[in-house]
Amino acid sequence: MSSSTAKKRIRQALAVSTAVLGLAVATSAQAQAGTAPVPADAGVLTTHAMETDDGNPGGRLEFRTLGDIVTVSDQQANDGHSAIGYVYEYVNSTTRGDRLYSLRDDGSDGVPAVARASDGGSHNLVEGRSYWFRICLIGDDGLSFCDWAAWSNQEPA
Fold first, then answer.
1. Does residue 77 form part of some domain?
2. pTM (2 d.p.)
3. Residues 108/90, Cβ–Cβ less than 8 Å
4. 96-119 pLDDT, tens per residue?
């Protein structure tokens, strides 16, 4: 093998090794940052989310079907408003039923309010049923910037 052919093969091997190392480092960084690629069977990770209707959303509600996890977070702490989320029975696409529960987060501790099926009672939502969810800001002036969504509590098979 000539010297130039050997050098060419070494450069090619070095380029492949560098690319593989770069991919491994990028994937590791994504995983540590919580942005790793979503697996193909991501149905088990079904999460719905909405925010309050103000220009700079101050409240966020997330619903994860696996475990019936509802999270409410105040995204603008110490602004005089808290975030409050509600879960209602679903009657139809325009009508809600009874309120099942509510969660409130004032944002002061940086930890959202969380309810899950394992809390029992009304937090354990019936599989296959739909529910209405509502997120609002609440302050001395009452509720404001509310948003509604109806989502199904359908865990993947």
1. yes
2. 0.70
3. no
4. 999 999 999 998 888 999 999 999
